[in-house]
Amino acid sequence: MSTALPTTHRTLTVPEVMEALSLSRFKVYDLIRSRQLKSIKIGRCRRVPADALRAFIDDQLEEAA
Q1: pTM of the full structure
Q2: Does position 4 have pLDDT exceeding 70, yes or no?
Q3: Positive/negative CA dihedral, 45, 14, 17, 37
Q4: Would you say residue 44 has pLDDT above 60?
Q5: Eight-state DSSP code of residue 47
Q6: Which stretches of 3-65 are assigned E, i.e. beta strand?
Q7: CB crowding 24-36: b at 16 or more within 10 Å, else e
Q8: What is the pLDDT of residue 2?
Q9: 41 forms bridges with which residues in the sheet?
Q10: In Å, how far from its chain's centre is CA 8?
Q11: DSSP code of 7?
C-alpha cells in the first residue's frame, strides 16, 4: 500500500495527513487527541512529523496482520 506522502516535507499539515490517509479532519484530530498519531504544535499550527505518520501506518499494518 502506497501513501501519498510528500517526500520533501519533514512535517505535514492536517490536510496533508487527511489526504495521505483518506480520512476526515475530525478523524485525524481524533487520532491526535487519542495519541495514536503523534503531532507537535508550533504557535497555533498543528503539524504531524512524517516519521510519526509512517509509524502510525506501520502500527496499523501490524495490528491488521
Answers
A1: 0.82
A2: no
A3: positive
A4: yes
A5: E
A6: 11-13, 40-42, 45-49
A7: eeeebbebbeeee
A8: 55
A9: 46
A10: 15
A11: T
Measured in residues, the chain has a length of 65
End-to-end CA gap in the chain: 14
Nearest of 36, 14, 8, 44 to residue 26 by alpha carbon? 14
- What CA–CA distance (Å, rounded) separates 65 from 26? 26
The order of strands in the sheet holding 45-49 is: 11-13, 45-49, 40-42
The per-residue pLDDT for 65 is 81
> Cell 478523524 sits at which residue?
27
Is the confidence at residue 6, as pLDDT, over 80? no
**Residue 20: helix, strand or coil by DSSP?**
helix
pLDDT, mean of residues 54-62: 95
| Strand blocks (E) in 1-65 | 11-13, 40-42, 45-49
